[in-house]
What does this fold into?
Amino acid sequence: MLDRRDFVRQLLIDRGDLLIVPGLGAATYDVVAAGDHPLNFYLWGAMGGTVMIGLGLALARPDRRVAVITGDGDMLMGLGGLATIGVKQPDNLVIVVLDNGHYGETGMQPSATEAGIDLVGMALACRFKEARSVSRIEEIPGVRALLHAGEGPILLHAKIKPEDVPRVLPLRDGHAIRRRFMDALNSV
Amino acid sequence: MHTSLNIEVSWPDTIYAHFRRVGVRQVGYVPDAGHSRLITLCRDDPDIADVVLTTEEEGIGLVAGAALGGQRAALLMQSSGVGNCVNMFSLLRNCGFGCLVLVTMRGELGEFNQWQVPMGSITADILRLCGFLTCRVDDPNDVHEIVGAGCDMAFDGDLQVAILLSQRLIGPKQWTK
It folds into this structure.
């Protein structure tokens, strides 16, 4: 299994102008820890809605790559979004699920994936062009290539260790996060 | 589907004309019989991405993502769907995303299915509590003015606007053909 901070940091090496929507909680902290960036739209709430924000953005900007990076809890709450995305088939959208099988923010209670519920199978059943699990550090270069150039929709399921890591907190003012993102996107 | 020709412009066509006027590029919806004409118009428009949602709350994320990418998105739902959105509405207020929701009402006076009443009777109050400017339309002659103003306030003013299309406007659901 992967160290979550290590995985996200290596995944986002040379991220370029990738647009990133990190899900609330630990996934957002991991993305900040890899380096704050105006093209990160951090979430502090809206649990279950992250992949749909990714879809709206991917449809609006077909000229850009969009990555949703989120946890298993957020993904499980928004499973219907996989079907919605599967219908639209956005070729520029990648969902990265950091799966530790637990609700880390609330005391490490086990999630559905801990019981073997299969997110990769669900994504494939929802007509994702590609869905695969990643659990070894050597796989990251291939995964990074998919992130930047694979034909979407893609779901990358990263098996990460269920461990508590220090929080790295981003901006919390939602208006500021939105404006910073939109200004950066419009200036490129 | 439509067997008779309607010479007058119907209220869904009026709403669609406003979508075109303000440049709506994405429309998210959970189908409702009252919205069927408008959904067809949007689906047939190559400039509009029609997104059929599995639950209405997905639409709030869609609106936010579209706005981040510089596009305008509108949502169509039935009154029962408003209840599905409540927590997700917080995304709009926390970040200042404008949002236009067109709600076809069920559960109002004359509703034959009483299971629609508990949600339909609190829809407007819920929207107000969640920060929406809420306006109700009963008369087809008011659709142009109210939906036009709603579009402008949502998309130019970054406000959350809900327009309730009443059961009197839509007409009762037909169960027999």
